[in-house]
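Interim report to the steering committee. The following record documents the input for Protein translocase subunit SecF (183 residues).
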Amino acid sequence: GKTLRDKSFRAIAFVIIGISLYVAIAFRRASRPVQSWKYGLITVATLFHDVIIPLGVFALLGRFKNVEIDTNFVVAMLVIMGFSVHDTIVVFDRIREKLRTPNTQMAFPELVNQSLNETITRSVNTSLTVLLAILAIYVWGSHTLQWFIMALMIGISTGMYSSIFIASTLLVDVWKWQQRRNN
């Protein structure tokens, strides 16, 4: 009940803070043209997206199918956050590599697009591989894991989407906002 909810919120808050700090520190050398703390903020925004979708689906399942949010669901949310942040960091890391390349004359939006094109196959293949593995567990596994696996399938799918389409778009939007503000 209340204890699970409180501990869950605390665990998720610590994970989000830890992820933000990690991304900000890891990308501190890539603070041109977007500051490293903004990479962390964008990562947290995509994590919010990745968690809110399965949470909404399970709220509906709870309403119509009497599915309860339990410790397995909390663990699924933490796994989703870890998987999604890894996928987002892969894209951001490729952007960072390209920013470090000497004599890069490419505009930032094009650089982000090129980085995304270079990592999209890896992101999709990794996510689909995991989805196929957990789909097998869903179909042939224990009934007690059914909702845990369902949460993972929803979360990993939304995580794949957000790391490809939301994180990089937000990064370019932040850059454009900074450009307008500086002019």
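The chain has five helices and no strands. The committee is asked to note this result when reviewing the revised timeline.
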